[in-house]
Amino acid sequence: MPVDSKPIESLKEADLQALISEATAELHRIEYKGTLPGNSRDDRIEFMADVSSFANGNGGDIIYGMAATEGVPKRLQTLPGNADDEIARLESMIQDGIAPRLRGFKSHPVPLASGGYVI
Questions:
Q1: Rounded distance, CA 83 to CA 79, Å?
Q2: Is residue 75's pLDDT more than 90?
Q3: Helix, strand, or coil here: 72?
């Protein structure tokens, strides 16, 4: 799987497109989300539960901006807003909402050729 075999900082759109073309289904180490979590209490709780689940296991990747049907990726979709601001918001939720603090958590914006980004 391209996501597991590369450092997160080197991921490109082609790596994510490979997940789609290979129909790489969600497993214990990968999850697809079409949109970013919102700011409601329920959205924050769900986000932190997803992150905690990977942290308490063997790690994993959550890809925001990947539309999926029944756990199989179908297409990339541009996320709204500024990538750096959204990553800072997600990281702040993790730092403020998960104890003990997570170590080794990384986020990376992947620019799309059509414009915009996914995380």
A1: 8
A2: yes
A3: strand
